[in-house]
Design brief:
By secondary structure, this protein is mostly helical. The protein is built from four helices and two strands. Strands 1-2 form a two-stranded antiparallel ribbon. Helix 1 crosses helix 3. It is rod-shaped and about 100 Å long.
């Protein structure tokens, strides 16, 4: 039981680190070229103002400025980045699970049949004696 808990803890730590790497990959590497191709859209600042803030009335140049003004926003760009991050993580986990399943199948196929225990051999002898 302890081994499973340790495996789970290691998996959580590695998963958290991997999540940070994928977030950086999406935010800093994948989305800027896509935004440039679409027409210079910065996905991290793609939002819709639902209600202007009490401090400053929009339009706001960035999401940070809108939040600082107290505006209520619908953060579409952040949501798109999160979806892409999820898809990358899901694909990576799927690939790892497929690899582990394939590895496990090979181990099952390669395992030689176990020798019967002495109890089984004794029971077979008794069975054979009873048949005679």
């Amino acid at each position: 039981m302890r081994g499973n808990v340790v495996d789970l803890a290691v998996g959580m730590v590695v998963g958290t680190a991997f999540s940070g790497i994928v977030k950086s990959l999406v935010d800093d590497v994948i989305m800027p070229p896509i935004g440039l191709l679409i027409g210079g859209v910065d996905f991290s600042n793609l939002f819709i103002t639902l209600k202007d803030g009490a401090k400053v009335v929009g339009p706001y140049p960035s999401l940070a400025a809108a939040k600082a003004a107290g505006a209520v926003t619908l953060n579409i760009g952040t949501f798109i980045n999160t979806i892409i991050s999820f898809l990358i993580i899901a694909a990576a986990i799927f690939a790892v699970i497929q690899f582990l399943n394939k590895l496990q199948r090979k181990q099952v196929e390669e395992a030689p049949p176990a020798e019967p225990s002495e109890e089984v051999l004794l029971l077979r002898e008794i069975r054979d004696s009873l048949k005679k």
